[in-house]
């Protein structure tokens, strides 16, 4: 189990629909590397597979969603892609997305 640093003021949008997905996962560390935060930052427990800026955090359900894909709109302002629930992916697919 790791800890994810969540930036509550940094929304993440789906680049293809421009719909709000969640908020940014800014950093992921081992529990002994956690430091004090305040304001718009908070630590939450996460699985070892979660990676910063590859997942978004949904606060109301305390879940993470994997970001993937490329924007259909070349003028899209969000750097990541469409959201796919992590449980819909095989481990091989998930690793391929994380290594893009």
Could you explain how this protein is built, in words?
The structure is a single chain. The chain has 100 residues and is mainly beta. The chain has one domain. The protein is 8% helix and 39% strand. It has a six-stranded antiparallel beta sheet with strand order 3-1-2-4-5-6, with no helix packed on it. A hairpin with a 4-residue loop joins strand 4 and strand 5. The longest helix has 8 residues. It is globular. The relative contact order is 0.26. About 16% of the residues have low confidence.
What is the strand tally?
6
- Number of distinct helices: 1
Task: Give the helix level as a range of percent.
Answer: under 10%
**Spatial strand arrangement across the major sheet:** 3-1-2-4-5-6
**Kindly, what is the distance between the CA atoms of the first and last residues, rounded to a whole number of angstroms?**
24 Å
The H-and-E topology, N to C, reads as EEEEEEH
Report the structural category: mainly beta
The overall average pLDDT, rounded, is: 79
What's the domain count? 1
Give the strand content. Answer: 35-45%
Rounded to an integer in angstroms, the radius of gyration calculated over CA atoms is 13 Å
User: How would the global form be characterised?
Assistant: globular
The largest sheet, given as strand count, sense and whether it forms a barrel, is: 6 strands, antiparallel
Which residue ranges are poorly predicted, with pLDDT under 50 across at least 5 consecutive positions? 71-86
């Amino acid at each position: 189990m790791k800890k994810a640093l969540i930036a509550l003021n940094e929304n993440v949008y789906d680049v293809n629909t421009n719909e709000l997905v969640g908020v940014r996962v800014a950093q992921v560390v081992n529990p002994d590397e956690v430091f004090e935060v305040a304001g718009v930052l908070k630590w939450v427990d996460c699985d070892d597979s979660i990676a910063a800026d590859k997942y978004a955090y949904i606060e109301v359900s305390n879940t993470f969603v994997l970001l993937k894909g490329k924007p259909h709109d070349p003028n899209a302002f969000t750097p990541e892609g469409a959201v796919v629930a992590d449980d819909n992916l095989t481990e091989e697919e998930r690793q391929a997305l994380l290594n893009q």
